[in-house]
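CORE FACILITY INTAKE
Project code: CF-77B
Contact: R.S. (postdoc)
Sample description: multi-component assembly, two entities in total
Requested service: structural model of the whole complex
Turnaround: standard
Below are the sequence entries exactly as provided by the requester. Do not edit them.
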Amino acid sequence: MSDAVASAPLTRRHRLWLPPVLAMVLALFALWYVAVVPMNVQETLTQAERAGAEVSPPTAVERRDMSNWVLVFRNLGTLGESWNLDRPRLPAPHQVAVELYDSTIKEELTGRRGIVNSGTLSNRSLVYHGLVTLNATFVGFLIGAALGVGLAIGIVHSRVMDMSVMPWAIVSQTIPIVALAPMIIVVLYSVGVQGLIPKAVISAYLSFFPVVVGMVKGLRSPDKMQLDLMHTYNASKARVLWALRLPASVPYLFASLKIAIAASLVGAIVGELPVQKGGLGARMLAGSYYGQTVQIWAALFVAAGLAALLVWLIGMAERRSLRRMGMTP
Amino acid sequence: MNPAWAALPVWLAGYGLNVVIANGPARDSRLAKIAVPTIFGLTVLAMWELLVRGLGVPAVILPPPSQIAATFADNLGLLWRDFVQTIVKGALSGYVIGCGAAFLTALLVDRHDYLRRGLLPLGNFMAALPIVGTAPILVMWFGFGWQSKAAVVVLMVFFPMLVNTVAGLRDTSAMQRDLMHTYAASWGQTLRMLRLPAAMPFIFNGLKISTTLALIGAIVAEFFGSPTLGLGFRISTSIGQLDLGLVWSAIVVAALAGTAFFGAVSLIEKRVTFWHGSQRKG
């Protein structure tokens, strides 16, 4: 409260300006467009040279060891193609937007393998790859969240489990779990499990621990007074769990679910790296093998959009359920 | 008799021992708090060993811990070079650059309210994104060496660190700031005497989150290309050769490094924020 009062004069002074978030996003895009020039200068000048323009210094060998900014300032007139290169080191935002459109809407509507012409989603479209990743994310998230809640209930009710498992759960947070991903995929593949499940296992593994830690905190959040009240009602342990602990843990659950679903998406993407069978991760790796930078960027934007959508969905469910439970802040 | 059967009594013994300690009179002592998880871990290891040997699980699926330990001991030099490449060169340098840049940005953002209201939602948004996805791009830009790994780490740790530091710098009450104002303290003095110390718990929270992210970034970036060195490289190539013992050894190195890194930061935190509620006992 006091913070809002303290910063009130500042807000008034800036009200005439653009909304700050919009301004920052615009600034970011402007910066991006500027950065495209020095990042792509070598390639641009090679093309300009081939087209017959005067370039200084004239050969690619001499240019290779020069700093990009020097090249930019010595060839200010011949940089027009920077934003339209075929395989840029850094594609311009509009190139990524075009690629996004081409590989989603255009591919599905007009492509030979698109949904309109073939009845199934095209395996070249990001819609298809996004759905593959999303499937693994959801399955992994559900498994991870269910196991996490289950283990948290066990930890709250059993002192032995609390003392023996909880330290390991905390230590496991400090371990780069993603390192396990390729191994899990290969091991599961060799016992005959493949497709969705190995990726979901990695997703589940990543989303499991945030839920455990959050839920243990949440299930322990009822204070002594409330627990004593349940005790005077002669409530059984199951009843205390159902009527007091679980409702009290809902805000904690949603906070950790948001972290968990973002982690789950990362898990699915990393899980797709070793097996090239579709998905955003596979798409990124393929793009990096074949130098298709625009393709990587498009996949990256789809992944970012998915993450934002998933977190937003959980946030939505959080607001709804908290309001219905009468717990809105 | 099949050694797999021995796993059952081992489990019962470990579990029984833990029940006795956890419900015994000394259950809140420091020793018990270390002993119980240690017994649990050792029991799991022993069961793993017995079950893998007893059920004849092929070593290409799950090697027994003893074999992993043997491989680990045989390849100490190799693993040490991987450790230096990935953890020291890639993760640690990226961590320092990323956290430092985030801290300086946070100071700047904190001074200008307009920047704060614009960058903070963006930072929160970016912190939730799968930034590991930028790894292929950065590997393409900075080459296969440790520089590209450090770049991935910088991007990964920047936003969580920024958000935490900005939140921390705002964690002073109007009363405290007014007091500094009545002392005619300059911005720098207020920062040094009041706001930085108050922000320390938040800053350390960001630093601790970043330790794990740094290792993840450095290892995943190696899956997209690296010199013939590094933990991520070791993991992905050893899987290709079905040398699971070496894979597990590399994972053990990553786990030990992650725990040690996190532990070191927590230790510094304990020294610096000894006054904070979460560090005091009782």
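Facility notes:
- Chain A is about 75% helix and 0% strand.
- Chain A touches chain B through 68 residues (CB under 8 Å).
Invoice: internal transfer
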